[in-house]
């Protein structure tokens, strides 16, 4: 791997940290290579590479960030590339940091929004890294609330775009493009994205944030949540990211008091989590992971511990989907520990069900069953007058049945899986179209496990037809998972009929 031409000034900062960490040059190179593999990179550095860095040569691309992460893990404190005397890394790999201050949190998440809103396809190819879950969840759990959120004046610094090699380029100002309208469907008209009151086409940093601004952010969240549920995350994801860049970031860099500021960061956390959720749905897993980490940090600035637990549950869901059951369980348990026993019953049910899903992926029958029982008991204690957070209201009897169905399928308890999946489909409204696809495939897999091949193929064909109407990689992958389960029966007549029906979908 070729680095940029060497500078003449020896890197004493890097030398001091190598000595503090007790690394040999070969040991540091090996750890950088190993960390690169976690990010899907084949780096192949060696002790000679480290010698060149110590002499003043700057590693190229993403390597400075990887070196900084190696030292962060070793020394137990967060270090940046600049702390090591290295140039800032290419921003593609930024976003896993858990910011030390609210201002730093704005810088990190703002950079992520700006990079994602452009035509940077490489950003959506970043690999998911299980190791990247450890530090943010730990820092959230043990971190203290931010003392000051209010901003009385805008900082002189203006967020910069990234130039070649990850170096800052001149700032630019863009008018906010209108988000995409919902798809044209029978009986539905175009939906407008709310804009804060009193604004033209562009909002500049330093303007005072009002209650109407925050209400607009919340309305945008509801709109995009509806689009995601019905049509898949790929439909309007880019419009959401552009909205975050052009409307939300200037608000975060505006002026506001403590109470307004906490509410603003809470709304920003919710939209950022949703950006991550829609990225997850199109299989941009590394990008989604970064959005979730930043949403977790924003929720801490907001002082909303319960919402932070929801972000951790979202991260746990992604880990389950990717087959990282142990990490999924740990995230769910950190969420439970973070909110304690005082959370509303529906929230408790949500957290326990997330843990159950992780145990299910691991094949841990007793642990998964116990967590499901805790979730069921918690939901049974919920009352209509409870103050359930808006983000947890989706967790009802239909969702609990869905969780049971998934867990029993993963544990190969197919009769129970079929019963719960059928109940979930009966209870779940049609508006939750993607969730219904997932549940229908779970039911098809359970019927297949019970030897009911005809019914399994019919259910899966219906799910495939519905998935084809969405922009959701996850929905398609559910169908593909069922098809992999069909391999032992590939010559059977129902399977041939199924494949013909799916092929007709194009």
TrEMBL record:
Coiled-coil segments: none
TPR repeats mapped onto the chain: 398-431
Residue segments, region Disordered: 146-212
Compositionally biased tracts (Low complexity): 183-198
Signal peptide start and end residues: none
SUPFAM superfamilies on file: TPR-like
Keyword DNA-binding listed: no
Keyword annotations from UniProtKB, A to Z: TPR repeat
Keyword Metal-binding: no
Protein name in the entry: Regulatory protein
Species in which this protein is naturally found: Streptomyces humidus
Highest classification ranks of the organism: Bacteria, Bacillati, Actinomycetota, Actinomycetes, Kitasatosporales
């Amino acid at each position: 791997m070729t680095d940029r031409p060497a500078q003449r000034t020896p890197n004493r900062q890097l030398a001091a940290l190598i000595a503090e960490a007790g690394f040999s040059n070969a040991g540091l190179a090996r750890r950088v290579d190993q960390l690169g593999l976690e990010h899907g990179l084949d780096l192949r550095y060696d002790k000679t590479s480290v010698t060149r860095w110590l002499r003043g040569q700057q590693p190229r691309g993403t390597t400075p960030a990887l070196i900084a992460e190696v030292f962060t893990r070793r020394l137990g404190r967060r270090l940046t590339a600049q702390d090591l005397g290295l140039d800032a890394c290419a921003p593609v790999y930024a976003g896993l940091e858990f910011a030390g201050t609210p201002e730093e949190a704005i810088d990190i998440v703002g950079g992520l929004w700006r990079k994602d809103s452009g035509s940077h396809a490489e950003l959506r190819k970043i690999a998911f890294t299980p190791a990247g879950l450890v530090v943010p969840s730990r820092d959230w759990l043990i971190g203290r609330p931010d003392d000051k959120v209010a901003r009385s004046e805008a900082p002189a610094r203006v967020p910069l775009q990234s130039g070649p090699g990850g170096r800052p380029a001149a700032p630019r100002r863009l008018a906010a493009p209108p988000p995409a309208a919902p798809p044209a469907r029978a009986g539905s008209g175009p939906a407008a994205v709310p804009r804060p009151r009193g604004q033209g086409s562009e909002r500049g940093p330093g303007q005072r944030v009002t209650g109407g601004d925050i209400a607009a952010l919340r309305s945008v969240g509801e709109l995009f949540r509806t689009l995601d549920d019905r049509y898949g995350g790929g439909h309007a994801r880019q419009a959401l990211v552009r909205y975050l860049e052009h409307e939300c970031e200037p608000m975060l860099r505006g002026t506001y008091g403590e109470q307004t500021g906490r509410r603003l960061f809470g709304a920003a956390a919710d939209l950022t989590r949703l950006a991550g959720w829609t990225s997850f749905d199109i299989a941009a897993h590394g990008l989604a992971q970064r959005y979730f980490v930043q949403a977790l940090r924003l929720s801490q600035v907001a002082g909303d511990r319960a919402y932070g637990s929801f972000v951790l549950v979202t991260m746990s869901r992604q880990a389950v989907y990717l087959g990282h059951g142990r990490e999924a369980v740990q995230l769910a348990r950190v969420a439970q520990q973070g909110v304690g026993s005082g959370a509303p019953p529906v929230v408790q049910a949500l957290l326990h069900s997330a843990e159950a899903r992780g145990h299910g992926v691991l094949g841990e029958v007793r642990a998964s069953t116990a967590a499901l029982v805790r979730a069921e008991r918690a939901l049974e204690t919920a009352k209509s007058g409870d103050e359930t957070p808006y983000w947890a209201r989706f967790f009802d009897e239909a969702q609990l049945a869905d969780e049971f169905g998934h867990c029993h399928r993963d544990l190969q308890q197919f009769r129970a899986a079929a019963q719960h999946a059928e109940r979930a489909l009966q209870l779940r409204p049609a508006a939750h179209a993607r969730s219904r696809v997932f549940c229908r495939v779970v039911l098809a897999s359970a019927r297949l496990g019970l030897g009911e091949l005809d019914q399994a193929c019919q259910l899966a064909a219906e799910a495939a037809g519905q998935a084809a109407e969405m922009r959701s990689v996850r929905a398609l992958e559910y169908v593909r998972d069922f098809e992999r389960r069909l391999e032992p029966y590939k010559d059977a007549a129902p399977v041939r009929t199924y494949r013909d029906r799916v092929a007709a979908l194009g």
